[in-house]
Request: fold
Amino acid sequence: MVTVPAVARPSRRDSFRPYLEKESLAAFFVGVSSGFPFAMIAATLTTRLAQEGITRKTVTAFSLVFLIYNLKFLWAWVVEGVRIPLLGRLGQRVSWLLLAGCLVMAAVVNLALVHPAENIQATVIAAMLVAVAGATFDIVIDAYRIEKLHPHQLGVGSGMSQYGWRIGSAGAGALALVLAGRMGWSAGYMACALFALPAMLTGLVLGEPARHVVVSTRRGVAEVWDSIAGPFMEFFNRAGAWLVLLFILVHKIGDTLANLTFRLLFNDLKFSNDEIALYDVGFGFWAYLTGILIGGIA
Reply:
């Protein structure tokens, strides 16, 4: 009779250790910075526009700004291949983290300084600039996170990034609401611009990823087109690609409609910014975390 040795179960400390590794913590902090620009042009902007008397039709039209995030693949090759003068000495990923972070901060401050009731066109342009800067920040953050994590850390790192994204998004949204109720929307948005710092500081402290492969900065038209179209062709050649795409397109419809219409309803019902921050953002944040946990278990 063969005796099978018992496999020792990992201790609680061993289970949490992967989450405390510097690469996993880096994924968390860059995730915080990744989430906040989206919040600035999502429900937070909806509340601001509603409180400044902008019509519902105009407010809901601002959802088109989110399409910019869907088009970021068009300039991802720039972030990958163009070396930034002077800053480039810090490394391709770190230099772009710093540049994109500064662009996001400047775009959010610009959005803070516009007055929707006086000039809605300037507000549209400001929101688009936040979306472009935020999408560029996302490109760099995703590349930095994936290259910084070791292969065995990708699962934990992905979860940490999601937690960071939710905290950054909810934290910035709540901070903007609370400060807007006391000091005005401009002050609220300017304070939220500081949420870009965690990713920038993470890049400076941990440095360039060792797994980053340097590519040539001289690229012809054919190479640029291949970098844009190649991933799409590879994706659609996979079995079930269309089903996955359909799921991606459909499953967020409810969230999108809720984010747009709930804040308009809250404004009509005369809820204060503090109440929205506590019940919508606060409870919504914990609901997100609970959902992530249940989803992971399932």
Observations:
- The chain has a mean pLDDT of 83.
- The chain has one domain: 21-297.
- Residues 105 and 193 are 5 Å apart (CA to CA).
